[in-house]
Amino acid sequence: MSDLKTEKLFKKALSATRTHGGKRRAFGKSFVEVEDIPYDSEKYITPDVIRRARKAGAKGKLKFVGVGMTSVVLTDEQGRCWKVGRDTSSTIRGMLADEAEYLQSASGSSAKKNIAKIYRYHPGPAVIERACVTGRPGRWSDGTMLQKLHFDTIAPAMQKRGWLRPEFKENSYIIDEKTGTPILVDAGFTQRTGNRLVEYIQDVLAGRRKTRESKEDLAFAVRMERGQYIPEDVADKLLEKLQTKTR
Q: What is the rounded distance in angstroms from the CA atom of residue 111 to the CA atom of residue 155?
């Protein structure tokens, strides 16, 4: 189906929405159905978002889960979650790629039972494909328990694997309805540390990886870790190379 036909059908679906308890249910043909879209989030469910979710592998009817600064989250009939970049800018691509790498690292950590399982990252359409967690979002009343988990369990486990803790928000967690286990489903704004940061910068300098960060920002990160998580001699060599690159 052409992009033009897709967009026409999508607009027709939105124009035929019905109201359900303050939410809208948007119907299209079999290739797209997005349910339970809050009014204030409708503008983010664009034909491009749907196309990229499909390109990554989303099947059947889709259901709206949430929207954040970088992405829209949908579920499909396979029971998988698709975190789709709100656009395909280099900034959003980089943030999703970092989050995907964090989730992949978590699969081998001691905190893996509290971190969502990732299946894969689809760099072309800028989509994270991960397991869905059925339950309720964390809320203010869960704050003490979730902070303890976030800072005392997940953070040290992931630091051993070269990651600083992601941003803490209660609703970054879903409380599994079957087990009561809190699962981190949003690992945005995490940063590399130690040897993982060193290897990342070496790859950037060698042209093996792209980065959305400036050389000045990378140098700042190295200086912050010099002598603590990165040996001074290693840090100094990196800083020298970064300075040369920025001249």
A: 9
- The strand order across the sheet containing 135-137 reads 135-137, 173-176, 182-184
Provide the pLDDT confidence category of residue 236 given band limits of 50, 70 and 90.
Answer: very high
Let me know whether 10 and 122 are in one domain.
yes
N- to C-terminal Cα distance for the chain? 49
pTM of the predicted model as reported, rounded to 2 decimal places: 0.83
Tell me 112's DSSP state. Answer: G
Mean pLDDT is lowest, of 62-76, 122-136, 140-154, 163-177, for 62-76
Domain with residue 103: its CATH number is 3.30.200.20
What is the identity of the amino acid at 241? K
193-203 burial string, b = 16+ CB within 10 Å, else e? bbebbbebbee
- Dmax of the chain from CA atoms? 64
Q: Is 237 helix (H, G, I), strand (E, B) or coil?
A: helix
Q: Which residue has the higher pLDDT, 212 or 26?
A: 212
Residue 231 belongs to some domain of the structure? yes
- How many separate domains does the chain show? 2
d(CA 67, CA 175): 18
Containing structural domain, residue 210: 194-246
